[in-house]
Design goal:
about 350 residues, single chain, 5-stranded mixed β-sheet, alpha/beta, Rossmann fold, 15 strands, 2 domains, 8-stranded mixed β-sheet
């Protein structure tokens, strides 16, 4: 298939169109503005609706309404805007309403700056809103994955009737790389008999997250937990490199995983056997894969562009005999290959 030099944010926006998303609601914030700009021009060409909302809170609630009617709908933002969407995301999870939310991460906390970061991992993976819920979370590491994982996010959201999030740092949003802008397989939008399309000719339906009868909320939360357990069993996505003989395993996602690949090749040229496990799905996290590899590979280096948010999940997942090290660059800092190489050498030298 033909590939075209494409920016990450543009690949994501085109992926949404190819996934048959026809409703976008959003509010501008750097560094994700290429997404609404592209969709404002191109979504109406395929019969879609683009609405520039008055706020991020309005955006996500418009998504809720469109998605409740059975349409594929999405919004995109960055850190502070995603924070404002958390209440509605909790409502949608509690009401079994699918949608896609994109976070092109910028540095924080607070207003922060426009530099790239991975500081929103905990917000995305471990909730953010209130209650016992999860969003499905996917983390692209290339422009091609920005396209492909957007289609995958809509598919997973519909399959499990659950919000799905794509989180990518600002570097991936702004990268330009050759990209195939057609789906690998035909996109199929499933029937949605649960959707609120009017009750003429059938019994009324209700989508809700409010359960007040005695024990009713507990029962609903346990049903949601069963769904999340199924997602954990079926939808883990990850990439490995050079783990068959590695003496140290780097765990990284997004941009740091790309940089780690260069560091690993440099290290191997020096006879130092490092390998990589890159989580692609952050929820569900590759718990069993981290554990199984760590039975043999006793030393693990977690590399993130934050102060250690995925680190907790690696610590929980790894074998009890593992030695876990961390290298983080928060607030817009980006690790360099030689920095990672130095961290690997130091970890291997420790007894």
């Amino acid at each position: 298939m033909d590939r075209r030099l494409t920016k990450g944010n543009i690949a994501l926006a085109e992926g949404a169109i190819q996934a048959h998303c026809r409703y976008y609601f959003g509010y501008p914030i750097t560094p994700q503005n290429d997404i609404p700009e592209y969709l404002s021009r191109n979504l109406p060409k395929v019969g879609g609706v683009f609405i520039p909302a008055e706020s991020e809170i309005a955006s996500i609630n418009m998504v809720m309404g469109a998605a409740a009617s059975g349409k594929r709908a999405m919004t995109s933002s960055s850190g502070p805007g995603i924070s404002l969407m958390q209440e509605a995301l909790s409502y949608m999870a509690g009401s079994d309403i699918p949608c896609v939310v994109v976070n092109i991460m910028r540095s924080g906390p607070g207003l922060g700056g426009i530099a790239p970061t991975q500081g929103d991992y905990s917000q995305a993976v471990h909730g953010g809103g209130h209650g016992d819920y999860h969003s499905i979370v996917l983390a692209p590491a290339s422009v091609q994955e920005m396209f492909d994982l957007t289609i995958k996010a809509f598919e997973l959201a519909d399959t499990y009737r659950n919000p799905a999030m794509i989180i990518a740092d600002a570097m991936i949003g702004q990268f330009q790389e050759p990209c195939r802008l057609t789906p690998r397989e035909p996109v199929v939008v499933p029937d949605k008999p649960w959707a609120l399309t009017g009750c003429k000719g059938r019994a009324p339906q209700l989508l809700k997250s409010l359960y007040l009868a005695d024990g009713e909320q507990e029962a609903h939360n346990l049903v949601m937990k069963q769904k999340y357990d199924i997602i954990r069993d079926r939808e883990v996505m990850y990439e490995t490199r050079h783990l068959e003989d590695a003496e140290l395993m780097i765990v990284a996602f997004g941009t740091p995983a790309r940089i780690a690949k260069t560091a690993i090749e440099n290290l191997r040229a020096r006879g130092i056997r490092a390998g990589l496990l890159r989580p692609i799905s952050l929820f569900p996290f590759p718990v069993h894969q981290v554990h199984d590899f760590s039975i043999r590979i006793k030393k693990i280096l977690v590399v993130e562009m934050n102060t250690g948010q995925m680190l907790r999940d690696v610590q929980i997942s790894a074998h009890r005999d593992s030695r876990i090290f961390f290298y983080g660059r928060p607030g817009g800092g980006v690790p360099y290959p030689d920095d990672i190489e130095a961290q690997v050498v130091a970890a291997l030298e420790e007894a």
